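Hi support team,

I've been running sequence recovery on a batch of backbones for a student project. Most finish fine, but this one hangs at about 90% for roughly twenty minutes before it completes. I'm not sure whether the input is malformed or the queue is just slow. I've pasted the structure tokens below so you can try to reproduce it. Let me know if you need the job ID as well.

Thanks,
M.K.
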């Protein structure tokens, strides 16, 4: 799969099934209730496993990018956005554009 430029669906699914995508999410929304430090340790383990930053990058968005919603979102936003991501029904992404 190296160099093919495809999303690692099997890897993502295995982390989802093990509950790791919700590592830094509140338990009331289906997360594990751990914190950013624990999530960073998980990302380091992924990178050191041989997956490098490409492996960690495939899951860092759902783990870290939802923290503004966790910290500052309304209850409605948290209930609407967090559970589907933690359950794997929705994926979180970002786009970068350049001139």
């Amino acid at each position: 799969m190296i160099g093919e430029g495809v999303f690692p669906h099997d890897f993502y699914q295995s982390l989802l099934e093990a509950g790791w995508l919700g590592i830094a999410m509140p338990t009331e929304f289906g997360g594990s209730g751990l914190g950013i430090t624990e999530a960073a340790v998980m990302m380091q383990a992924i990178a050191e496993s041989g997956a490098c930053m490409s492996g960690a990058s495939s899951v860092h968005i759902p783990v870290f990018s939802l923290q503004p919603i966790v910290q500052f979102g309304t209850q409605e936003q948290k209930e609407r956005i967090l559970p589907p991501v933690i359950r794997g029904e929705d994926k979180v992404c970002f786009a970068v554009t350049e001139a």
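--
Follow-up from support: It reproduced on our side and the slowdown came from queue contention, not your input. The two ends are 30 Å apart (CA to CA). No action needed from you.
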